[in-house]
Amino acid sequence: MGRIKSTLVKRTSHHLMREKPELFNSDFENNKKILGNTMPSKKIRNKIAGYMARLAKEKTS
């Protein structure tokens, strides 16, 4: 079983995936670099990048 993500992480991830789906993919490191310093903290950035990688992986499967 996975960890429960906060509403902030889910809402932001879904919004970014709708805005620019061609940028983000199932690679965590790539997503992390794209998000860069735009997030309020490193912890939030990593959570969002990981959740987006998971969404992209589910989308392709």
Structure write-up:
The protein is mainly alpha-helical and 61 residues long. It has one domain: Diphtheria Toxin Repressor, domain 2 (Orthogonal Bundle), CATH 1.10.60. The protein has helices at 7-19, 28-35, 42-60. The model has no long low-confidence stretch (mean pLDDT 92).
Portion in strands: under 5%
**SS content category:** mainly alpha
The tally of domains stands at 1
CATH class: Mainly Alpha
A few lines on this structure:
With 61 residues, the protein is mainly alpha-helical. It has three helices and no strands.
What's the topology here?
Blueprint: H1 7-19, H2 28-35, H3 42-60
Describe this protein with a few key phrases:
61 residues; mainly alpha; Diphtheria Toxin Repressor, domain 2; 66% helix; globular
